[in-house]
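Annotated sample (chain length 100).
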Amino acid sequence: MRTIYKQQLDITDLQVVEIQKNSKILHIDTQGEHSVCMWYECESTEEMVELNIHCFGTGYEMPTQDDNLEYIGTVLILNGRGVFHYYISPVFKSWNIHRI
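Output written by the structure step:
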């Protein structure tokens, strides 16, 4: 069954989350004052896979060895005083996880 799920994300350099294989990342935004969430569409019966999610603040240096990161969204917190940009690692493209 096709389902849309919500995954809460941390504001941290790197985190690993589990989502269904072949997921489509729909949107990343804040929910409430400080909570960052990612919504994704998937087939709920697909196997779970680990996904590396990277987060960089505006003005912060990004590692050059990760030039192939795939951008998935930007969020603003604290009334726009904090702006964070989220990416996934390219290794997981083999799982067909992508931003639409």
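Annotation: The chain has one domain: 2-99.
Annotation: The chain has no helices and eight strands.
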